[in-house]
Amino acid sequence: MKLVRAWALGALAVLLTGRPALAQPAYTVEQASPPIHTRGVPVVVAYTPPEPLPQNAAMLRVQVQLSGQTRVPVQTRVCVDLQAKQCMEVNGASASTSRFYGVPANRPVYLVYTVPGEGPLDPNVYVRGSVTVWYGRASLPSSRSSAVRP
């Protein structure tokens, strides 16, 4: 049932965004952040695949949707490796990227939330995130397909 839901949510995200990746498998994970209670302190949320993926599956595209009523601005980054700083900023309520193309799809995708400034937040801030990952076999373009034709 989870796999059917993941497929349905992935297909819906494709339809809503107009992306042509409909033939690729995808998974979607939604969850709320823990409380963000201090300005300037990042809160990291891991989005892991809901079911095991094929061992050779690679990320092809990642889409992030954010929601939640906040009275303060929340800066958000989407990352696939926190140590190597493989991240990109999410500007606005959504982002879609192929920046992580080829990264093993079994890895978690992280959303890192930060409220700028210093000091406590009262009340706490919560952000609901949704991450969709399209995965499959990553391939490099062939020299024939990238050649310039007259």
Task: Characterize the structure shown.
By secondary structure, this protein is mainly β. The protein has one domain (2-137): Sandwich (Jelly Rolls). It is 13% helix and 43% strand. The chain is built from two helices and ten strands, in the order αββββββββββα. It has a four-stranded antiparallel β-sheet, covered by helices on one side. The chain has a four-stranded antiparallel β-sheet with strand order 3-8-5-6, with no helix packed on it. The protein has a two-stranded antiparallel ribbon with strand order 2-9. It starts with a helix and ends with a helix. 25% of the residues are buried. The model is unreliable at 1-21 and 143-150 (pLDDT under 50).
Topology, please?
Layout: H1 2-17, E1 26-32, E2 36-39, E3 43-47, E4 58-67, E5 75-81, E6 86-90, E7 94-97, E8 109-114, E9 119-125, E10 128-136, H2 143-146
Antiparallel strand pairs: 1-10, 2-9, 3-8, 4-7, 4-10, 5-6, 5-8
